[in-house]
Amino acid sequence: MDHKELEAWKNGIALVTAIYQITEGFPKGELFGLTNQIRRCAVSIPSNIAEGAARNSDKDFIRFLYIALGSCAELETQLIISRKIGILHAFPEIEQQLTNTRRPILGLIKYLQSKNKE
């Protein structure tokens, strides 16, 4: 399966692009703190989807998809923290992009799991 054809991967790339744009406005003092952490976990999402798709087994792919889901949750948490400490205002477009990324990852997991039960 070519990862570049997967909706989850495409949405993950769009999410990373948006994350880089919003973190550009973060204070310079956060460059090695939240800014770096937020960017790293955002990049981790499509990266893990790509790595999993390149593996030889559905079991490995599922494992990497779960890692990508974990990165989605981590990113959401860091964005909430950023909002609570006042360096980020409401982020509905990012929340929607997270949902748009998380949903196809879950769909892929379900598909791969059901495929292996047959």
Can you walk me through this structure?
- It is a single chain.
- This protein is an all-alpha fold and 118 residues long.
- Helices cover 80% and strands 0% of the residues.
- It is built from 4 helices and no strands.
- It has helices at residues 7-23, 31-54, 58-84, 92-117.
- The chain is elongated.
- It starts with 6 loop residues before the first helix and ends with a helix.
- The relative contact order is 0.17.
- The mean pLDDT is 92.
> Which CATH top level class fits?
Mainly Alpha
Give the H and E element order.
HHHH
CATH topology: de novo design (two linked rop proteins)
Structural shape? elongated
Kindly estimate the percentage of residues that lie in beta strands according to DSSP.
under 5%
What is the total domain count? Answer: 1
CATH superfamily: 23S rRNA-intervening sequence
Uncertain runs are: none
Tally of helical segments: 4
Rg, alpha carbons: 15 Å
The CATH architecture name reads: Up-down Bundle
Helix content: over 70%
End-to-end CA span: 19 Å
Overall structural class, as computed from helix and strand content, comes to: mainly alpha
Can you count the beta strands? 0
Mean pLDDT: 92
Major beta-sheet overview: none
Please describe the structure with a list of short key phrases separated by commas or semicolons:
118 residues, mainly alpha, de novo design (two linked rop proteins)
Write the layout of secondary structure elements.
Layout lengths: L6 H17 L7 H24 L3 H27 L7 H26 L1
Helix pairs in contact: 1-2, 1-4, 2-3, 3-4
